[in-house]
């Protein structure tokens, strides 16, 4: 049974990710700053990814209840496959850009895609690692792992691959623990109604689709818009937010007809 409040929270977090990247693309294309949006994004920074990870952790128990084999197959389909497909597209995008700019090809970062993702798709790679890590663990082991991971995250060298992984893994485990501790029975009140509520729930329900497509869509839509004469920052920001939502809706619809 889906819970609308979870989908809506996930949708709000995805919207925050879109806002961050839209602001960065606008600044990159125009050289202009958007101080108000930068302030909002700075305030959302401690919430965006921890919330997405914790919400994913809340689904662990239900997924593992289907059996470890089905759990792993589901995560390979939902996380590894889109990571490979869209990661490949992102690599092509970077290689083409460097070739057009006449810059040396950054071959050195290609092997990192397997252990320290350098593209915007790092989130899917992290989630896959988290799910693989908890697959053999029972509820008690996952509970005991939380304080251990939290302590390791506190002492891990700052700004390293391991530190970033552990920092989010603790939120994943916390989401799982809170769910098992009774959050599953929590009624947070009426869900958001109307168009806004349905839109957020849709974004959350299909969060992976919108996440994987959004940045590439923003980059190329932004270049096309600037070439067409759209240089004002606020209209450009609004269009860059709308573009991946529109493309994402099309991909969601196509997903039902072509599962690959």
Task: Jot down its keywords.
260 residues, mainly alpha
Molecular structure report:
With 260 residues, the chain is mostly helical. 75% of the residues lie in helices and 0% in strands. It has eleven helices and no strands. Helix 1 crosses helix 11. The longest helix has 34 residues, at 68-101. The radius of gyration is 19 Å and the shape is globular. The chain starts with a helix and ends with a helix. The mean pLDDT is 91.
Catalogue the unreliable spans.
none
The overall pLDDT, averaged over residues, is 91
SSE-based structural type: mainly alpha
Shape: globular
Order of helices and strands: HHHHHHHHHHH
* Main sheet summary: none
**What gap, in angstroms, lies between the N and C termini?**
25 Å
Rg, please?
A: 19 Å
Number of strands: 0
Helix content: over 70%
Count up the helices. Answer: 11
The percentage of residues in β strands lies in under 5%
Write the layout of secondary structure elements.
Blueprint: H1 4-30, H2 35-44, H3 48-57, H4 60-64, H5 68-101, H6 122-134, H7 139-155, H8 161-180, H9 194-205, H10 207-227, H11 233-257
Describe what is shown at a glance.
The protein is mainly alpha-helical and 260 residues long.
